[in-house]
Specification:
Number of strands of chain B: 5
Strand content of chain A: under 5%
Largest interface: A-B, 39 and 33 residues
Number of domains of chain B: 2
Strand content of chain B: 5-15%
Order of helices and strands of chain A: HHHHHHHHH
CATH architecture of the largest domain in chain B: 3-Layer(aba) Sandwich
Largest sheet of chain A: none
Largest sheet of chain B: 5 strands, parallel
Order of helices and strands of chain B: EHEHEHEHEHHHHH
Structural class of chain B: alpha/beta
Number of helices of chain A: 9
Helix content of chain B: 40-55%
CATH class of the largest domain in chain B: Alpha Beta
Helix content of chain A: over 70%
Radius of gyration of chain A: 19 Å
Shape of chain B: elongated
Structural class of chain A: mainly alpha
Radius of gyration of chain B: 22 Å
Distance between the termini of chain B: 24 Å
Oligomer: heterodimer
Chain lengths: 219, 202
């Protein structure tokens, strides 16, 4: 596992989402999964997403796997909510204070409104979508009477990633800011990190959780 | 989040060919989700619940199933079908395909054929030239002032459809999608002045 982390440090983020401590010692990936009670196939599939490969087949084998994925996604929500977004928000605020240009005031406003949207979306997933999947595995809901479905979930995708791209494009292509490279680099790095994790997040939803939901509903 | 991700279904019986295609597509620039389907019925089933943009199929699997294939094409005009030829294929089956490649083609040839049938927007980098036309500037200006497509269409005396096309072009030229983002773009580029914008409403 140590070698894998050395090859792709972003796996640390994945481990955090899995509630795995970073001090992996000399454990192999397989030993680590066993110790933490995580399906190795699932772990590998998600690690591969972080390394740029999409899963060939759905890694969900059991009820526990679904719980594991939901916990993973919820942990990533905490990371967005409590770590990444506040960090970006603080950088933008600082940038705005350092530079009087009004564009930056607008950018801050844009980001704050967007942040509020994101919080809403995360809340929706935490309280509506994820409980639905947990219910789906514990007892089969009668879908005809059920108001919610995996299809609805898949349609409830927001433009969360797209607005991050907008902010990145504005900073890299258009908005003129003089100097302050340290702060601007930190901000851009944060945006890239967030964008990357959001991308993986949506891939997990689209390639693993939603297809699983469809299959369960069909049974 | 998924609007531009391409959904690709692969229908081949050989596991090795499936894995090979999967690897080639996963490692290309195409942002896609790939699934394996075993039969046309299976595909029709999937199409019920979600959109599939591209089917890559061994054309031999279409033999004697032309009717079903035509039905799928009719019901899902957005679906492109590309054949992966493992052997000589009869003309009936070929007629059902938009394009085809063979297992002897190079990765580049395969990807370039996929591009040619029109999924290339996924492969092309967005245009770097953000020189907007006069009309696009008109639309942009109204847009950042908060006018709706309908209002813009009325005031410029063009159809809503044209407004939408202009908006698409603006986004592909600038790389900016949201209205707030476009506002900041327009100010940075001195297309509008900051005084025009009511900070309270933006």
């Amino acid at each position: 596992m140590f070698d894998l982390i050395e090859e792709n440090p972003l796996l640390l983020l994945m481990m955090q989402h899995f509630d795995i401590d970073f001090r992996v010692g000399d454990l192999t990936m397989s030993q680590l999964c066993k110790e933490k009670g995580i399906n190795e196939k699932l772990f590998t599939s998600i690690a591969n997403l972080y390394n740029g490969f999409k899963p060939k087949e759905n890694p969900i084998d059991s009820v526990d796997d679904v719980k594991q994925i939901v916990r993973f996604l919820k942990n990533s929500h905490d990371y967005y909510r409590n770590d990444k977004y506040p960090q970006i928000s603080a950088y933008i605020k600082q940038l705005q204070e350092n530079h009087p240009e009004k564009e930056l005031k607008l950018l801050e406003k844009f980001f704050n409104e967007y942040f509020a949207e994101v919080i809403d979306h995360l809340y929706y997933e935490d309280t509506v979508a994820f409980p639905y999947f947990i219910e789906l595995i514990s007892h089969k809901p009668n879908n005809k009477n059920n108001l919610y479905s995996a299809k609805e979930y898949s349609e409830h995708h927001t433009d969360i990633e797209l607005k991050i791209k907008d902010i990145k494009n504005l900073l890299l292509k258009y908005v003129i800011i003089n100097d302050d490279l340290n702060l601007r680099r930190k901000l851009l790095f944060s945006l890239f990190e967030l964008e990357y994790d959001l991308y993986i997040h949506s891939l997990i939803e689209e390639t693993i959780l939603i297809p699983f939901g469809y299959n369960m509903e069909r049974v | 989040m998924s609007r531009h991700r391409l959904h690709i279904a692969i229908m081949v019986h050989s596991q090795i060919i499936y894995e090979g295609l999967h690897t080639v597509l996963s490692q290309s620039e195409i942002d896609c989700i790939i699934c394996k389907v075993d039969s046309l019925d299976d595909l029709a089933d999937i199409l019920h619940s979600k959109k599939v943009d591209l089917l890559i199929i061994n054309p031999l699997l279409l033999v004697n199933r032309e009717k079903e294939a035509r039905k799928i094409r009719k019901n899902h005009p957005g679906l492109s079908i590309v054949g992966i030829n493992l052997s000589i294929v009869d003309n009936h089956s070929l007629a059902l395909l938009d394009s085809s490649f063979t297992i002897f083609d190079t990765v580049e040839q395969v990807l370039s054929k996929l591009q040619r049938i029109g999924i290339d927007s996924e492969l092309k980098a967005p245009s770097n030239d953000d020189n907007l036309t006069d009309r696009e500037l008109d639309v942009l200006t109204q847009l950042v002032h908060g006018y709706s497509n309908k209002e813009i269409a009325d005031s410029l005396n063009i159809s809503i459809h044209t407004v939408v096309t202009h908006r698409k072009n603006i986004t592909s030229k600038t790389g900016i999608r949201s209205q707030s983002g476009l506002t900041i773009y327009a100010i940075s580029k001195r297309i509008i002045s900051i005084e025009d914008i009511d900070l309270q409403n933006h």
